[in-house]
Write a structure and sequence with these properties.
Low-confidence stretches: 1-15, 101-116
Oligomer: single chain
Strand order of the largest sheet: 1-7-6-2-3-4-5
Radius of gyration: 23 Å
Number of helices: 4
Number of domains: 2
Shape: globular
Structural class: mainly beta
Number of strands: 12
Strand content: 35-45%
Order of helices and strands: EEEEEHHEEHHEEEEE
Length: 258
């Protein structure tokens, strides 16, 4: 556990340095009232994320207080370079810094007990970026709005968007186990990603031959410039439940082969 809120190694000049590995560890410990609140039980929980450019893998694990563990390993080959290049080109970690000012007021122990919350809860993190030539950047501290870097969400949202492509298989996807039943009255939304990016965007289509992994042509921007994108997910929605108004969303032009 790091005692300092912000530990930065070397000279801080990381722009365009190649990232080799990113590790993020997280731990949470809470004391919860037991029976009449005169005694407490301690609960622990932890997570660990590593993104390794050398092995082309992403690993994410969770450990619960009862010893239960969840482990995910993504062997994604050269796709890992897309994610790391995004961080490098957008200088995500170079811009990471921590603010010292405390913007939040603490809740008293009595208020926490009345609200049924833990008497005390501590969450910490440690984020390390390993560069070529043995350079490192390390940040750590309390895992909250104050203790995290200002652009932490930019980093973690990119990872989340990247992993969404791999997180659900066909056996969980009703577009496969509903196949053949028809989707009358429902709209087919395709999530697509542009080359070199991880963020996905919705497009509407009526072509049920389109599948995840296909390349399609879509209109982009006010001039509707044609771009080639890859489909990463397909979902069906009723009009009232659509993630974007069906009368405003753009449509896939056609499939293509690259």
């Amino acid at each position: 556990m790091l005692e300092e809120n912000n530990l930065m190694l070397l000279d801080g000049n990381f722009y365009m340095d190649r990232i080799e590995e990113i590790t993020l560890s997280y731990s949470r410990m809470a004391e919860v009232p037991f029976f009449d609140a005169t005694e407490h039980i301690e609960r622990k929980y932890s997570e660990y994320l590593t993104i390794n450019g050398k092995t082309k893998t992403i690993e994410f694990s969770r450990e619960f207080e009862n010893g239960n563990k969840v482990y995910h390993k993504y062997e994604v080959g050269e796709c890992i370079d897309i994610l790391l290049s995004y961080f490098e080109n957008n200088r995500v970690f170079e811009r990471m810094k921590l603010e010292e000012a405390d913007l939040c007021s603490s809740i008293s122990m009595e208020e926490e007990i009345d609200a049924g919350l833990p008497v005390s809860e501590e969450s910490y993190y440690s984020l390390t970026i390993y560069y070529e030539n043995d350079k490192e950047k390390e940040l750590g501290g309390i895992f909250d709005f104050i203790g995290l870097p200002d652009n932490y969400d930019e980093f973690i949202n990119a990872v989340s968007d990247f992993l969404k492509i791999y997180n659900e298989g066909d056996i969980f996807d009703k577009k496969f186990y509903y196949k053949g039943k028809g989707c009358k009255g429902k709209y087919m939304f395709a999530s697509v990603v542009f080359p070199g990016t991880v963020k996905s965007y919705y497009y509407l289509t009526e072509d049920e031959s389109i599948e995840v992994g296909d390349y399609v042509i879509v209109p982009v921007g006010p001039e509707n410039e044609r771009k080639i994108v890859q489909v990463v997910n397909i979902e069906y929605f009723e009009k009232y439940d659509a993630p974007y108004p069906v009368d405003k969303i753009k449509r896939i032009i056609k499939k293509c082969y690259v």
